[in-house]
């Protein structure tokens, strides 16, 4: 192979690599999220938070006419940043959604939500969103 | 020289005979599922003291007419209770409350259904002078009576190195009662020793009800280390509140209106052995007890906020009873 | 008042003479009834006790039995008081959604009270039909009365700006909006100009030395706006009360233990029979000895009622009677001592909400 051909080949390969990288074919993992993606993530998250807000304020979550906001206005006194922790009402270490279900079952006398249900995730999204910025303090009482 | 030897020997005998009174400390064996009970510093456990306490516990002469001993109402053959709704004292008189089991009573912070005294020693003083129980006119009367029994004079001298007083009488009884602890039940083996076949499948389901829908665990408390099945608190669950003059319970001790009709949370250990249940013995079976809680107790103005209707299914109720039966532990050998 | 004429002389005539002053002192010592004048002409009221029940938030029975049971329990607790209180005051929010059935149920339960009942309106009672049912069942929403030397005023302090008409809301929608404590679009409670004028007129006939007690559903100060723990025209209302020597405000709405002092006025918040509110993220007055966080396992924890001891000075001691907990007494002397509230136990910074 002549030198000229060699240089040309190298240039072509480099161009191919750069092109592949640019379009994400080879280096897809290392790319930052596009502005459009970020907007989608934010909208989907906000949708869950809004759904959580609605359920949190819905007296039909239980059967006694009570809704979560009656004891927890603006999700006050829920302390999501302290989970998992030993929960005195349940007498073992649990996560936030277990306590949500306990509250639905006991004061609200409703039916427990499946832990992975959309409603449960929405409630967790709203509750934790209200405490955004609070440092994590798992186990704290 | 001989005189000196005699004097020394006599001194030695005197000292050693007194020393031997304090010489055999009793090491309490803690069964699986339990922890150390509180033992007052001024009443250490010794073998001799426990033997004396046991003698007193079974001695009918502690009552005014020599018919009632502690063991009448706290009978080892009946789970250290007496299988009656309320207990019979001297001359066939009945009191207002059910005799609690002595088993594991060492773990209560306060004694009696209304928690009016803090220790087993103080508890033992009560029935002795209660006119419907053992009916002695006074503690002094009992002391005088026992001082007239040479065997007891000797025993007290041996154990305490001193004369009979009411405090020493109850200290001996309390020391004996502290040996009446019972654990290592099928539940203990299942929960604390991971023996997965120690309790039946229905009992396992009953344990889940106990911790969850049944809401039992919050007052009949146990934890990952040991199980007393009592929170040592007082709750009004509505028992007896439908009477014209309900038993005031803890209210008589504290004067807090919130304590009206509130009674101490009983341990559930050996509960299958100690029917009938509640402070007035009004519930005869475990099924009746479970149904009572299922209904939300008996509504009254002082009902504890933790008592609510449970909506248990029939199967859940049965499973819960099976679980309660698994709390029967190994009984102490007398 | 007839007691002005003791021994055939009016109070002023008595005091003018030197022996009169001595006679007054003597009279002050031996006269047990009515107004007692001490040597320096200070008016003193007669001490007495009344009970405070509040915030029952009743639904009709087949929706929520617990709130009904709680109010019944409160009524029974009050009836069990020995000696009986002079009267019982209900602090507002008898109903939850202002429905006539809820209000009638509340009236029925409260009718079992043995002592006399004075009652006040809350926003949950008012906003379904703008107080129509309330006024039919309980009378005017603002009034005053005198008792044992104290002037009592009852206000409707939950007046808000009309936002339902421009938004074409139905009565039920308006009620639901008012019922949500953390409503981000909520309008602030006020006493309002018309009612402040009524208050001014009412107070005209009251001497400055006479102790005054104001019952108000909202706190008559500004604690936390997002939850309407707030009275927007509080300063104006307090100005009307500023000339009085002793003023105490008793309020509901906040469902928690609260104590505050602004100028000459002491403020006391009371427990609800139905459910507890947490303390607000900010604005809780420093004089408040906060109650510990309720345990939701106990359906009545954090709830209860209260007892108020009106002292001869016209100030008040209060005792909270929380269900599931020990009673908590706070005296006026403690509040005014400058050493209130007491420090929390070592290592603790108080209950955390």
What does this molecule look like?
The complex is a heterotrimer of chains A (141), B (334) and C (353). Chain A folds into two domains: 1-31; 34-130, Orthogonal Bundle (Cytochrome Bc1 Complex, Chain D, domain 2). Helices cover 47% and strands 4% of the residues of chain A. Chain A contains four helices and two strands; from the N terminus they run ααββαα. Chain A has helices at 3-23, 35-56, 96-105, 118-130; strands spanning 85-87, 92-94. A two-stranded antiparallel ribbon of chain A has the order 1-2. The longest helix of chain A has 22 residues, at 35-56. The radius of gyration of chain A is 25 Å and the shape is elongated. Chain A starts with a helix and ends in an 11-residue tail after the last helix. Chain B is globular and about 85 Å long. The model of chain B has no long low-confidence stretch (mean pLDDT 93). Chain B has helices spanning 2-21, 47-57, 70-73, 120-129, 139-147, 150-160, 166-177, 186-192, 201-211, 251-254, 286-294, 314-325, and strands spanning 234-235, 263-264. Chain B is mainly α and 334 residues long. In chain B, helix 4 packs across helix 7, helix 9 crosses helix 12 and helix 11 (286-294) crosses helix 12. In chain B, strands 1-2 form a two-stranded antiparallel sheet. Chain B folds into two domains: 24-177, Cytochrome c-like domain (Cytochrome Bc1 Complex, Chain D, domain 2, Orthogonal Bundle); 186-325, Cytochrome Bc1 Complex, Chain D, domain 2, CATH 1.10.760. Chain C has 353 residues and is an alpha/beta fold. The model of chain C is unreliable at 1-42 (pLDDT under 50). Chains in contact: A-B, A-C, B-C. At the B-C interface, loops of B face helix 3 of C.
């Amino acid at each position: 192979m002549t030198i000229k051909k060699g240089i040309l080949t190298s240039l072509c390969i480099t161009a191919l690599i750069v092109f592949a990288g640019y379009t994400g074919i080879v280096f897809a993992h290392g790319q930052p999220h596009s502005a459009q993606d970020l907007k989608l993530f934010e909208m989907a998250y906000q949708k869950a938070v809004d759904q959580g807000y609605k359920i949190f304020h819905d007296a039909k979550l239980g059967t006694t006419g009570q809704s979560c906001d009656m004891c927890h206005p603006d999700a006050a006194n829920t302390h999501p940043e302290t989970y998992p922790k030993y929960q005195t009402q349940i007498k073992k270490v649990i996560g936030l959604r277990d306590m949500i279900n306990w509250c639905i079952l006991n004061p609200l006398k409703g039916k427990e939500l499946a832990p992975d249900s959309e409603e449960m995730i929405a409630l967790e999204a709203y509750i934790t969103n209200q405490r955004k910025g609070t440092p994590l303090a798992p186990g704290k009482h | 020289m001989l005189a000196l030897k005699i004097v020394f020997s006599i001194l030695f005998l005197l000292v050693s005979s007194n020393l031997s009174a304090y010489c055999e400390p009793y090491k309490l064996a803690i069964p699986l599922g339990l922890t150390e009970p509180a033992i007052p510093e001024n009443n250490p456990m010794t073998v001799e003291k426990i033997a004396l306490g046991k003698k007193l516990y079974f001695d009918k002469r502690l009552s005014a007419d020599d018919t009632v001993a502690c063991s009448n109402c706290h009978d080892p053959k009946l789970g250290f209770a007496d299988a009656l709704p309320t207990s019979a004292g001297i001359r066939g008189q009945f009191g207002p409350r059910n005799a609690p089991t002595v088993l594991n009573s060492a773990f209560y912070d306060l004694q009696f259904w209304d928690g009016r005294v803090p220790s087993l020693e103080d508890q033992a003083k009560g029935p002795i002078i209660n006119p419907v129980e053992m009916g002695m006119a006074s503690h002094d009367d009992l002391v005088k009576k026992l001082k007239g029994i040479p065997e007891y004079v000797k025993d007290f001298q041996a154990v305490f190195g001193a004369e009979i007083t009411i405090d020493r009488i109850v200290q001996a009884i309390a020391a004996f009662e502290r040996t009446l602890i019972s654990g290592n039940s099928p539940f203990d083996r299942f929960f604390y020793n991971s023996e997965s076949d120690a309790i039946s499948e229905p009992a396992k389901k009953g344990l889940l009800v106990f911790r969850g829908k049944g809401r039992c665990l919050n007052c009949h408390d146990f934890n990952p280390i040991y199980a007393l099945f009592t929170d040592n608190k007082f709750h009004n669950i509505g028992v007896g509140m439908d009477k014209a003059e309900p038993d005031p319970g803890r209210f008589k001790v504290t004067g807090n209106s919130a304590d009206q009709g509130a009674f101490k949370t009983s341990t559930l250990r050996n509960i299958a052995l100690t029917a009938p249940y509640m402070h007035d013995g009004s519930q005869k079976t475990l099924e009746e007890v479970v149904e009572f809680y299922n209904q939300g107790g008996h509504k009254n103005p002082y009902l504890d906020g933790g008592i609510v209707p449970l909506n248990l299914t029939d199967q859940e109720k049965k499973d819960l009873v099976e679980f309660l039966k698994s709390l029967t532990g190994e009984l102490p050998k007398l | 008042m007839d007691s002005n004429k003791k021994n055939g002389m009016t109070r002023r005539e008595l005091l003018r003479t030197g022996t009169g002053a001595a006679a007054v002192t003597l009279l002050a010592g031996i006269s047990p009834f009515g107004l007692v004048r001490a040597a320096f002409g200070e008016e003193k009221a007669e001490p007495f006790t009344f009970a405070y029940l509040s915030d029952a938030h009743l639904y009709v029975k087949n929706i929520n039995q617990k709130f009904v049971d709680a109010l019944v329990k409160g009524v029974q607790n009050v009836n069990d008081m020995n000696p009986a209180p002079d009267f019982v005051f209900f602090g507002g929010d008898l109903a939850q959604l202002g429905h006539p059935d809820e209000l009638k149920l509340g009236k029925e339960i409260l009718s079992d009270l043995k002592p006399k009942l004075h009652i006040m309106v809350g926003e949950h009672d008012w906003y379904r039909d703008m107080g129509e049912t309330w006024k039919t069942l309980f009378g005017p929403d603002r009034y005053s009365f005198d008792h044992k030397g104290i002037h009592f005023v009852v206000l409707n302090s939950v007046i808000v700006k009309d936002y339902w008409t421009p938004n074409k809301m139905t009565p039920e929608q308006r009620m639901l909006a008012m019922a949500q404590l953390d409503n981000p679009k909520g309008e602030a409670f006020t006493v309002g100009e018309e009612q402040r004028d009524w208050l001014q007129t009412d107070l005209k006939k009251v001497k400055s030395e006479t102790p005054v007690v104001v019952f108000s559903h909202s706190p008559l100060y500004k604690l936390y706006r997002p939850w309407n723990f707030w009275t927007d025209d509080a300063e104006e209302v307090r100005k009307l009360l500023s000339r009085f020597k002793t003023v105490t405000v008793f309020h509901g709405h906040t469902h928690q233990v609260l104590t505050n002092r602004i100028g000459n006025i002491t403020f006391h918040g009371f427990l609800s029979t139905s459910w507890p509110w947490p303390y607000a993220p900010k604005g809780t007055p420093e004089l408040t000895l906060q109650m510990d966080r309720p345990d939701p396992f106990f359906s009545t924890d954090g709830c209860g009622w209260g007892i108020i001891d009106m002292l001869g000075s016209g100030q008040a001691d209060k005792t909270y009677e929380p269900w599931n907990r020990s009673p908590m007494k706070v005296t006026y002397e403690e509040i005014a001592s400058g050493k209130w509230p007491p420090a929390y136990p070592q290592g603790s910074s108080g209950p955390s909400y």
